[in-house]
Amino acid sequence: MLIGLYGGTFDPVHLGHLHAAIAVQKSLGFPTVRMVLAARPGHRGQPSTDIYHRWRMLCLACESYPELEPDDAEIARQGASYTLETLAAWCEANPGTVPCWILGEDAFVTLPLWHRWESLLDYCNLVVVRRPGLSSRYSETLTRFCDEYEVRQLNRFSSGQIYRCALPMENISATQVRSAIAMGEPVGHLLAEPVCAYIEQHKLYGITENAS
Length: 212
Ligand code: ATP
Description:
The protein is α/β, with parallel strands linked by helices. Helices cover 35% and strands 15% of the residues. The termini are far apart. The chain binds adenosine-5'-triphosphate. Adenosine-5'-triphosphate binds next to helix 1, strand 4, helix 5 and helix 7.
């Protein structure tokens, strides 16, 4: 059985993330998508917002969507949050399932920087979604990797595949949300309502005015 896993720093989780997770879940028929908080990402700068707040916002965002489950595996583990370790632990604990790691194309092009990236496909399939508004240049290494492993249709019983999804995505980023809040601009159209309320309540992102 294929299961969706969608990792992110979620600083904060926004409607672009939720739309991507649900669109892929429906399109590929996953029973669920687990939203994995990248607590201490290994290959990019550390998020400025405390893990506790990012986790609370992720839980609030998932509350309205039964098909999305917040996953704290990388919070519980000490040290850097390596996707490979998350996937290896998932496979050991859930035999008979094949995790499909969902990621935007901007993240996919950084894949060769990830810890033991060439082993990822031993544990999962990679499902790559479009990232409107961000340019994504493929290195030669990544192009060769795609040539070898990309499929047009996912085999539902095996790992080792790269599948690029043509589904339309929302042009929203957490960077845009953080800077809008800091400037006192409204962000109600970019965030789930309880996430918006949480940010206001805890005065996150240098909030200056009513963010709803
Ligand atoms: P930041 O602006 O801080 O870099 P972000 O919006 O890219 O944040 P992340 O938590 O870093 O959010 O992203 C987690 C994953 O979600 C990545 O694979 C990223 O490509 C993907 N993603 C983020 N926003 C969208 C979106 N609007 N549509 C599709 N995928 C997205």
